Amino acid sequence: MFENAFNNMDRVMRNDEGLASELDYAEQTSWLLFLKYLDDMEKEWEDEAGLEGREYRPILDEPYRWQSWAAPKTKDGAPDLNAARTGKDLIEFVNGELFPYLQTFRETTEDPDSLEYKIGEIFSEIANRFRSGYSLRDALEIIDQLNFGSQQAKHELSDLYETRIKRMGNAGRNGGEYYTPRPLIRAMIKVVNPQIGETVYDGACGSAGFLCEAWNAMRRDDLSAADWDTLQRRSFYGQEKKSLAYVLGVMNMILHGIDAPNIRHTNTLSENVLDIQQKDRHDIVLANPPFGGGERKEVQQNFPIKSGETAYLFLQHFIRKLKAGGRGAVVIKNTFLSNTDNASVALRKELLETCNLHSVLDCPSGTFQGAGVKTVVLFFEKGSRTRKVWYYQLDPGRSLGKTNPLNDEDLVEFVALQADKDDSAKSWSVAVRDLDTATWDLSVKNPNALEAQALRSPEQIIADMLARDAETAQILEEIRGML
To answer: Is residue 324 within a helix (H) or strand (E), and if so which, with residue range?
Structure first.
């Protein structure tokens, strides 16, 4: 049912001239799903309050609740076609009344982690892009069929939503930066091994893939009520700068079963790292910060090591956001290991001296679809300097791409060998004492790889071609003689 609903949504949105790409589809699906989710949760919370003898005050006023404007029903539960707005009336209500009302929650709510604040934040950052009220009415009827009342329903919806986010990777406008391959995330989580009671942080959370996968890894059916409450409310924290990514992240966590996600809409890099206090720190950092994009000079002043490379600023932030003994796993361009500019050298030195950079996973080309760069994953623990770095060169034995992506099986050997830092044909260790302290070069250089044959000179290539031509001519003469 859910898959049919999403397919039907796609057909409706393709027919609306206001929606042009997968990014638009994801955005519009998100705000509709969010309001339907909120309506279902309000019913559940009202029932719980009734059982406990408490009065429940709904978050939304009557005219703006889902059942009032999106899917009015008759007394027998059938759709009330007479009460349902459509066409121009529906668009005018959504744009002129609903969105302005929902936006007021940001000003009237002080707690940025509350659900009320997130309502205001979401609807202040996105817009209704439906131009046809008839298309929007069709979409509302489809979404109304969905039910958030069970964990099974949320699980199925989350899988479909993940597929939608993944498809954004080829939608242009840097959509791909919102999606990190889930097999890679799961392998990173297996290495850092988060436990209940620890906090997990991603300061560039995008669509919250790391937080959702960490949730999946940590939750179990036999958890106590206290542990379940800890997982729900005090375990996963994220920050995201971009509006659409923030909305996707909140919705993705909700669909995975986290009712009030601790994601804040803010530019993480605007925080001075020297102002980070112990209460702000976390046990685990999992992240894939954006590459390449530059930050303004005033933002760079928040960091001891100035750099126009956004990922370098994030890495400094992550190091300082970890508690002593905290564990990090961060994706970064492989050029970080070898660049000789002052910022790269200084940051490698800081990482090696303040953290134990115990493992480096070298990812093959094509791991990130459409990214055009090679990446590595840095695994480190804060609080002790690095003595030895273990490398693993991931080689799935095939070219990775859209039709042949990375899978969990590709990373099984890495996870197994990483536990004891074993050497193999694909893995080896380098002692920090053997590094050049002028550059702190950490380049991936597999000592077990066969040396590539030296390239032939242009003169040699021409000579070889002439020799083959002469050999071919001689063979043809011999054949002609036999005719």
So the answer is: strand 322-333
| CATH number at 2-149 | 1.20.1260.30
Nearest to residue 258, comparing CAs of 20, 4, 37? 37
Phi and psi angles of residue 357, each rounded to the nearest 5 degrees, phi first: -80, 85
**Alpha-carbon gap, residue 170 to 206, rounded angstroms:** 16
Distance CA 421, CA 445 (A): 16
Question: CB of 296 within 8 A of CB of 274?
Answer: no
CB 352 within 8 A of CB 431: no
Write the pLDDT tens digit of every residue in 265-306.
999 999 999 999 999 999 999 999 988 766 778 888 999 999
Listed in sequence order, the residues at least 6 apart from 254 whose beta carbon sits closer than 8 Å to its beta carbon are 34, 37, 261
- Are 177 and 205 a contacting pair, CB within 8 Å? no
How is the chain split into domains, by residue range? 2-149, 160-434, 454-483
CATH architecture of the domain formed by 160-434: 3-Layer(aba) Sandwich (3.40)
pTM of the model: 0.85
Distance of CA 401 to the CA centre of its chain: 18
Report the C-alpha gap between 301 and 303 in whole angstroms: 5
Measure the CA–CA gap between 159 and 74, rounded to whole angstroms: 33
The model's pLDDT over 361-401, given as tens digits with 9 standing for 90+, comes to 999 988 887 667 889 999 999 999 999 999 999 999 998 88
